[in-house]
Amino acid sequence: MKTTLKTDWKVEDICAGFEYSAAEGKGLFGLNGNLTIQPEYQRNYLYAQNDGEKEKAVIDSILKCYPIGLLYFNKPRSNEEKFEILDGQQRVTSLGRYIKNLFAVEVDGHQQYFDSLAQDLQEKFLKTPLTIYICEGAENEIKAWFKTINIAGIPLNAQEILNSVYSGNFVTLAKEEFSNSQNSNLYSWKNYVKGNVLRQDFLRTALEWLVNSSDDKEISEYMSLHRWDKNIDALKNNFVEIINWIEKIFTDTKDEMYGLDWGRLYNLYHEKNFDVAEVSAKVEKLYEDDAVTNKRGIFEYILGGETEPKLLNIRLFEESTKKTVYARQTNFAKSKGVSNCPLCAAGKNKNSKKIYAYKEMDADHVTAWSKGGATDIENCEMLCKSHNRAKGNV
Q: How many Cα atoms sit within 13 Å of 277 on the Cβ side?
């Protein structure tokens, strides 16, 4: 890879013709259209997050004559004066956004937009020289270098790396749909999909749902195969179908639905028929049940036919309850000359008269929780460990 150091470009040169897309969360162009600020292998603009502390720090550095670090530009074709930002798009976008009066910084105790700066400060800002390396090389060299220089700062996550490796038509279209903070569908999607849209988390989820896997290798293979596709219909349609399926079955949105593995649940249960009103009633009943300590498991529990109570992490009997019931059963058993395990006492084997120690017994629901039995002292019985394990959820 060939590199050339350039020190004669100033802030005003780099930001000439600057455009910013609020919808896509990225700087678009600089150098009067000759600089692509955010190629598709780059992440979205993140410096505006957390009250814009990072972008304000960039501007503050320029105004105080502090260096903002090296910038790396890629020159895709050696015979053209066209460039892409390889490293530094967050800083360059901050510079452009400030010149466009998209945020203010504190100067001498006052919030100042660029246009409100004193003329000499504006001039100082625009004339600040930048240190830039121009890089020329094959795509694989450029991508390898991109990964290397992004080890520091805000590390690239797995999907941002894949976007850089497979930049092309597919990534461009996919980011427009799933990494667009202005997409009106986000209002619905955010109920179910976990993560930050600008960090490619929604795109990552859409890909996981489509390939039925969270494995980087499988997602990588899909992106490689479809890198130059001119549409993302399969990706988008599958994602929307799953969202619609969720909203069709669960008419009431709950906080615990956020971030569940809906792709897996869809694959398992989307062919089943559900009575929507019945599902809604079951959800509410389980939410009101204090014995259900894992509310997030409610949805899979219902979809799966209510056969896996372990999904709900049912509250166990309190120690004081178990000891009270043990004492009651043991006293009764001794007075009758039978085992203090009701199931042993009802049998005709060697344990029919055995008195078990407390540590040899487990608490059990007389009427199973799944059949409406409460987790309270009136529905508690102590069984020997063998019978309790054999009884199961009956």
A: 0
In a domain, 133, yes or no: yes
**Domain containing 348 — which CATH number?**
1.10.30
141 and 167 inside one domain: no
User: Domain for residue 55, yes or no?
Assistant: yes
**Residues 149 and 162 placed together within one structural domain of the fold:** no
208-239 pLDDT tens trace: 999 999 888 899 899 989 999 999 999 999 99
Same domain for 71 and 126, yes or no, is: yes
Domain finish residue from 154, 189, 218: 154
Residue 81 gets which letter from DSSP? -
Residue type, position 22, single letter: A
Q: How far apart are CA 384 and CA 342, in angstroms?
A: 9
- In whole angstroms, what is the distance from residue 123 CA to residue 88 CA? 22
Give me the domain span that covers residue 108.
Answer: 1-154
Return the sign of the alpha-carbon dihedral for residues 171, 177, 181, 182. positive
Bridge partners of 30, per DSSP, are 35
Q: Does 326 lie in the same domain as 189?
A: no
Which CA distances in Å does 45 have to 49, 163, 214, 294, 392?
9, 15, 25, 37, 54
Q: Is the pLDDT of residue 151 over 60?
A: no
What would the pLDDT profile of 181-194 be if each residue is shown by its tens digit?
A: 888 899 999 999 99
Contacts 24+ apart (CB under 8 A), 318-323: 321/363, 321/376, 321/377, 321/380, 322/358, 322/363, 322/380, 322/382, 323/358
Closest CA to 99 of 83, 122, 131: 122
Mark whether 13 and 150 lie in a shared domain: yes
The answer to whether 37 and 93 have CB atoms below 8 angstroms apart is yes
Helix (H, G, I), strand (E, B) or coil at 27: strand
pTM of the model: 0.59
Please indicate, yes or no, whether residues 15 and 119 belong to a single structural domain of this protein.
yes
Q: How many domains does the chain have?
A: 3
Helix count (H) and strand count (E) of the chain?
A: 17, 11
Does 18 share its domain with 111? Answer: yes
If one compares 351 and 43, the residue with the highest pLDDT of the two is 351
The predicted model gives 294-309 an average pLDDT of 93
Question: Cα 268 vs. chain centroid, distance in angstroms?
Answer: 22
